[in-house]
Amino acid sequence: MSEEKAAPAYERVLLKISGEALMGDQGFGLHPPTVQRIAEEVKSVHDLGVEICMVIGGGNIFRGLAGSAQGMERTTADYMGMLATVMNALAMQSALEALGVFTRVISAIRMDEVAEPYIRRRAVRHLEKKRVCIFAAGTGNPYFTTDTAATLRASEMSCQAIFKGTKVDGVYDKDPVKYPDAKRYDTITYDDVLAQHLGVMDASAIALARDNKLPIIVFSLDEPGGFRGILRGEGTYTIVKG
Ligand code: UDP
pTM for the complete prediction? Predict the structure, then answer.
C-alpha cells in the first residue's frame, strides 16, 4: 500500500484549539493568515478521510472570568465569552470553505440565522457526510469552559480522541519555555494530570474525559503538518489516558 493510502490511525476526532491560537502575534482578536494556516492543517487531515469536529475557545476576544474580575456579573460575562467562540467558529468556517471543505457551525445557544442549533443526530449525519462540524458557544452554560465543551461534544459524537493543539508538542513536567530541562511525557494518566496540576485542560474537562475513557492527544499546532502526521501514526505528542 502506498504511504498516501495508509489508513489514518483515527476515523473521527475532535480538534480543540484555544481562541488565542487564532490571534497570531497580535495579542487580541483574529489574525486571518493564522486562521487560514490552521484551516489548511485541518484540510490536510480531512483529505485523509478523517471525520473532524472542532471546538474553538474565545479567549482571543473575551473570557468570562476576566470580565467578572472587572466587576461584570459573571453569568453575563460568560455569555459574552460564549458569543466570542461563535465569532471564531465563523472565521474558521469561512477559511475552511474557501479551501473547499464543507462545514457546519453548530451553536449550543440558538441563533438560527447564524448557525445551526445543536441536534446530536443531525451533527453525526454531517460528520458521516464528511462535513467538518465546528461546535460553537461552548456548552451553552456559564461557569464552563470550551475544554469541557470539547470533551462533552467529543463524547457525544463518539470521537476516538480529542486533539488539543497547543504551542508545545505535549505535556511537560514543568514549563518547557522557562525550563530547558523540562521533560515531556509520552503518555500520562488523567489522575496524574489532575494531581500534578499540569494544566492540559481544566479539571472538569479532564475528569469528564477520564470518566468516558476519551484519550487526549496534546500536540503542537505550530508544527506544520503536525496534526496530519499524528493521524498517520507519526510525530511527537503526549497521550493522556487512563
Ligand atoms: N464559556 C462558558 N461556557 C462554556 C464555554 C465557554 O461560559 O461552556 C465562556 C467562558 O466565559 C470562557 C469563554 O466562554 O471564559 C471563552 O472560552 P474559553 O475560556 O474556554 O476559551 P479559550 O481559553 O479556549 O480560548
Answer: 0.96
